[in-house]
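Contributing new complexes? Match this layout with zinc ion.
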Amino acid sequence: MEAVRTPATAQPTRARTRLLRIESVTVTPHAVIARVLSAPDALRTSVSPGFAERALALLPGLKRHRCDNGSAHGIVGELDDTETPHALEHVAFELMALSGSPRNLKGRTAWDFARDGRGAFEVALEYDVDLVALGALKAGVVIVEWLVAPAGQAPDIEAVVEGLCATRSAALG
Ligand SMILES: [Zn+2]
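Output block (do not edit by hand):
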């Protein structure tokens, strides 16, 4: 999984209340490609100390993830200081894996703030079942928002995975 960085330039930001929002999704034969908007004050997970610890407590399988981000500090260090939509990419893949998707699917989080506006990212996920990837992205947004700003009860991962398993069964049935 790689992240491509391009220099940020001053762009007007959109007003929004949520930390992450999926603006649109394109499904190609090989990948689900989401345009994800990240709030200006939550562009990186480092705004939220303990992000990786919380992420691993909820989703221990994240430890097994690899990331071709050029990060020397491994996935845990990466999760603690990376683009928030890149964390979403990994959380979505973990949810997919827990519901039966292969662990060798590839993803990519990319952005060009100069072209698309500050906070606009593209998160691409390969999939085995497209509806499972879509569901994982949608649930992943809620989970990552909680990881950034934990308030109230932690997300119910078991319920999310049950839902994705049901989606998988229905899609393959
Ligand atoms: Zn990655």
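Reviewers usually confirm one structural detail per submission. For this one: Confidence is low (pLDDT under 50) at residues 8-16.
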